[in-house]
Every structure is written in C-alpha cells, then in structure tokens.
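Customer escalation, tier 2.

The customer says the design service returned an amino acid string that "doesn't look like it belongs to this structure." They asked us to rerun it and document both sides in this ticket. The original structure tokens are below, unchanged.
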C-alpha cells in the first residue's frame, strides 16, 4: 500500500499542523459553499425564501451532527492505528465505521422525512414560510445517507493524513452545485423550477457524486486505504467500541446543533425579518470559524497519530501549537469580516435593506469573538484525538447550554437590547467558553499530561479484531 503522506509524527510540528489543516480548511469552505451558493440563489427569491432555508439549516445540522460523531470515532481510530503503522487495522476500522455510519443515516433519513412538519412546528415556523421550509428540508433528509457517507470518507482520509483527494472532490461538487442551483430553482426549458426545494435537490445531487467518487477511491486503494466488499461484513465487537468512542462526539455536535435550533427559535419570536437576519449572519459567522474547525480536526489527527506512535510529548506540543495558531488566525479572520460585513451580507441578500442593516450589525458585533471560538475548538480537538471525547462533549454542552442560551434569552427578553441581545450572546459565551477551555488545559503539567492520555487503549483491541 502506498504511503498517503509524509510522516506527520516527525519533523516540525507547526509544518505538520498546517500541512494537514490548510486542505481541511479549504475542503470545509467548499462544503459550506453548498449552503452559501444556495443562499446566493435563494436570496433572489426574497426574504421569505431566505427564512425558509434558515429555519431548516439547524434541523439538518442536528441530524448530520448525530452521524458526524461516529466519523470522529473512525478518524481517531484510523489515525491511532496508522501512527502505529498497523495498516490491517486501518482498513478494518475504516470499513466497519463506514457500515455503522450508513446504517445510522438510513434510519435518520426515514424518521426525519416523515417528522419534518412536526419539527418545523416545534420551532414555531410561521405559515408564511412553512410550506417552502418543509419542501426544502425533506429533500435534504432524503440525501442524508449520501451526506453521511461522504463525511465518513473525508474523516477516514484525514485519519491517514490524506486530505487532498477530498478537497479535489469538493471542488468538483461545488462547481456542479453552482450550475445545478439556478437550473433546479428557477427552471430552464423543459425543467420546471422548484423554488427553494430546487436548491436542496442540487445539493443532494452533488452529494451523490461525491459519495460515489469517495467509494471508488477507497475500493481502489490508491490513497492510504484499501477496502474490499468482504470487509463490510459487520464486526459487532468493533462497532460497539466505535460507538462508545463516537457517541460522546455525537452528543457534542448535537448539543451544538440543538443550540442553533434554540437560537433560531428565539430569533423567530421576533418575526421574519429578525429570523432572516439571523439566518444570513449566522452563516457568515459559520464561514468565519471554518479555519478553527480545520485546525481542530488537524490537531485531532496529529494527536492520535502521535499517541499511536508512542510520542505523547509531541501530542501535547501539537495541542499548544493548535491553540495559538487558531487564536491568532481567527483574530485576523474576525477583523476581515468586520471590515467587509456590508458587502458580504449584500452578496447573499438582494433588495431588503432592513434585513441587510440588521445582519451587518449582527456580524460586526460577533466577529470580534471568533478568536475565542478558535481556542475552544483546538482544546476540544486535542481531547478527541486523545480519545477523551467525553471531556470535549462537556465543554460544548457548557458553552452552548450553560452559557450562550441563557445569556441570549436574558439579554433579548430582560434588557433594552431586545433582539440585539441575541447578537451579544455570541460575544459573551465565546469569551467565557475560551476561558473555561484554557483553565482546563493550563492546569499543572502533570494534570494536562494525564488529560491528553487516551481514555482507553483501543489500539491493541483493534489490532486483535483485524487479525
């Protein structure tokens, strides 16, 4: 089997971190590009269409989060085995976690499709956008198995240090999505326009292409993994271990997604204009934190590989580099977003000055706190790489449910800020969460070392299963 990348457990730590993180950041930008391209074309339909897509986003994010936790497990287990150069276990773990992810996706797709109207009703979606929102998210729900499959493919590739091929696939998929969006939204010739549902159909179509290409790469074995159809035969013992490692990450990501749903509900209580404002602003901020997410994922992989190679000191040093790099990087990104807030908002929303003005204010208020998000994400990434997904989960739950939601509710309902209290809650919660993460990480050196040791030694068990 060809080596997918130069060894990431040797040489400059900063170079290894950036070598892995930069393609991940670009790939995540392209993934977010799906929503941004949708927002661009849907924005031409008016504020109601924008709001219909906005309310569907946190629900879909929640469902994707439930499955993404298991992709974290797949990435960490693969990286640990790859760091130890146990290639048989690498392939075994990859096949089994892919089976686990696909099975979960099929169940969620069926349940979510039929529960779609109920979900929209629970978050208080108004009658003026209910039909469009339901049509949009039902199409996305049908594509969940494709979406989950490609997420797992990217995670497995990341585990072996191969991040370029997923990037290339994302470039191709985004280009196709940009062409299909106007075709399916507005129609052309014999093809009837579907409105906001057309945007979802374009996204699902490109997800199908991405998943097929990813599966071909893994079956051909030219990028660090070599799967066989025989390898997909379920291994119950291994799946149980992957479930125990991935479940806290699923709760972690789901808690964050549910927090977005709660924030959407609070925004919806102030009317469609504020809801559309939140939809545009939150997406731009989500775009801004992508560098932090990329560094966090790279940190997880490097920590896991170094622990697999029995280099815990290098794993801890990697975490320190990730924290500093993410803080400084997001500080610059936040400044850029602050300065470019108006043209960015106007690019994705045409002809509604009230929503534009409010969205610019929201983005400028929250942009300065992005650097704090980078700190928390890097600490969480180090924890996941060490197998301590439970601690990473607790950090997210505290930052979202103990900090942001109560602060947002209080500031928007019990102060003169009104709906602007929702915007200021991002600043307060991000700063407090970063302090909490740093206090945890910067305890005595021995405590920090203990925290970065894997919660369980799964590597020997994985090797035994593969054998």
């Amino acid at each position: 089997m060809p080596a997918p990348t130069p060894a990431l457990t040797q040489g400059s730590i900063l170079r290894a971190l950036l070598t892995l993180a930069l393609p991940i950041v670009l790939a995540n930008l392209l993934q977010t590009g799906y929503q941004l391209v949708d927002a661009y074309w849907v924005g031409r339909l008016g504020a109601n269409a924008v709001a219909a897509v906005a309310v569907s986003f946190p629900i879909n994010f929640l469902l994707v989060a439930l499955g993404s936790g298991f992709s974290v497990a797949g990435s960490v287990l693969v990286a640990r085995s790859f760091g130890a150069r146990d290639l048989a276990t690498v392939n075994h773990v990859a096949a089994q976690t892919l089976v686990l992810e696909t099975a979960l996706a099929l169940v969620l797709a069926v349940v979510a499709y039929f529960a779609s109207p109920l979900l929209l009703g629970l978050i208080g979606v108004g009658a003026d956008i209910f039909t469009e929102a339901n049509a949009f998210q039902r199409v996305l729900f049908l594509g969940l198995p494709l979406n989950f499959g490609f997420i797992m493919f990217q995670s497995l590739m990341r585990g072996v240090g191969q991040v370029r091929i997923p990037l290339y696939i994302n470039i191709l998929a985004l280009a196709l999505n940009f062409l299909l969006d106007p075709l399916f939204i507005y129609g052309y010739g014999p093809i009837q326009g579907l409105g906001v549902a057309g945007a979802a159909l374009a996204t699902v179509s490109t997800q199908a292409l991405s998943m097929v290409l990813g599966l071909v790469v893994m079956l051909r074995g030219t990028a660090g993994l070599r799967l066989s159809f025989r390898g997909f035969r379920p291994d119950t013992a291994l799946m149980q271990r992957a479930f125990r490692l991935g479940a806290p990450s699923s709760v972690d990501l789901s808690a964050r997604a549910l927090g977005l749903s709660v924030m959407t509900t609070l925004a919806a209580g102030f009317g469609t204009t504020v809801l559309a404002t939140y939809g545009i602003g939150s997406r731009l901020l989500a775009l801004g934190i992508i560098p932090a997410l990329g560094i966090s994922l790279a940190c997880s992989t490097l920590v896991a590989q170094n622990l697999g190679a029995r280099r815990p000191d290098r794993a801890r040093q990697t975490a320190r580099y990730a924290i500093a790099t993410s803080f400084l990087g997001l500080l610059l990104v936040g400044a850029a977003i602050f300065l470019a807030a108006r043209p960015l908002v106007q690019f994705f929303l045409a002809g509604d000055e009230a929503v534009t003005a409010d969205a610019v204010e929201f983005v400028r208020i929250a942009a300065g706190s992005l650097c704090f998000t980078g700190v928390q994400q890097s600490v969480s990434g180090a924890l996941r790489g060490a197998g301590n997904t439970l601690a990473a989960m607790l950090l997210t739950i505290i930052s979202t449910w103990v900090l942001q939601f109560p602060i947002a509710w209080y500031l928007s309902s019990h102060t003169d800020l009104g709906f602007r209290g929702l915007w200021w809650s991002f600043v307060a919660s991000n700063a407090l969460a970063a302090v909490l993460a740093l206090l945890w990480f910067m305890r005595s050196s021995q405590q920090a070392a203990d925290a970065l040791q894997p919660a369980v030694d799964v590597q020997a068990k994985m090797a035994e299963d593969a054998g």
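Tier 2 assessment: The sequence is consistent with the input. The mean pLDDT is 83. Residues 47-83 form the longest helix (37 residues). Sent an explanation to the customer and offered a walkthrough call.
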